[in-house]
Design brief:
Elements lengths: L5 H16 L35 E2 L16 H16 L10 H5 L18 E3 L8 E7 L5 E8 L5 E9 L3 E5 L2 E7 L6 E9 L4 E10 L2 H4 L13
Antiparallel strand pairs: 1-5, 2-3, 3-4, 4-5, 6-7, 7-8, 8-9
Length: about 230
Amino acid sequence: MYRAPAALVLVLALAGCADVEGLQNEGDLGTVHAPQRLWKDIRPDPPDAAQRPGTASVVPGLPEVPDLRVRSVNPVSVLRADVTSATEQDGGTGRLVDPRAAQRLARCTQAVDGGPDCPVRPAVFHDLTGNGREELITALDLDGRLSELRVYTVQADGRIARILSRRAVLEGVEVAAEHLAVREPTSNPAYFAVFDYVWDPKAGIMNLSQLTLDDCASLTGVPLSPDARRCTR
């Protein structure tokens, strides 16, 4: 009895799958071109330590925290000291902090919450380092859209250090365990970029661990097709 070669059987089986699943010939996809690199001879200068947003930096001008509890400090005072120091370091160029930040902070009083006209967001306390002690998460709103996000920790020696700095359009900020996720708009209104920062115990900072896209119609108001994914975060 004649037996079809195994290769032929496999081809027929695949053809049958194609009919069932509806696989179709996509036609001529065009000529494939290698990517063209632009300005290949131009390189940016390497950033100094203060310019890297994930670099831990002790905030000068603040007293040490004897009990190592960040809740015992004034969040607005911490942010004010940090902005003042960063402005002096970058000379108002905006490398480290938006030049408008100091002016915006001038609207804050000495109250714990900065008073009714203070553009500093309410402080959030969450253990991002996993050592059982909380970190301070806050943000300074520069205008109706852009903000300066800051995360501070109290080191073992009692000094307050900034472990994350990000200037962004804060569409959403979430915390879970030792993760902090920042959601920002993209040029496509149907998608958000989600930056996931996780505590790096060796470096002592919050490092970017993952960058994803999220197509959340509930936030954008942009209708999606029936088979499109919903919010993933």
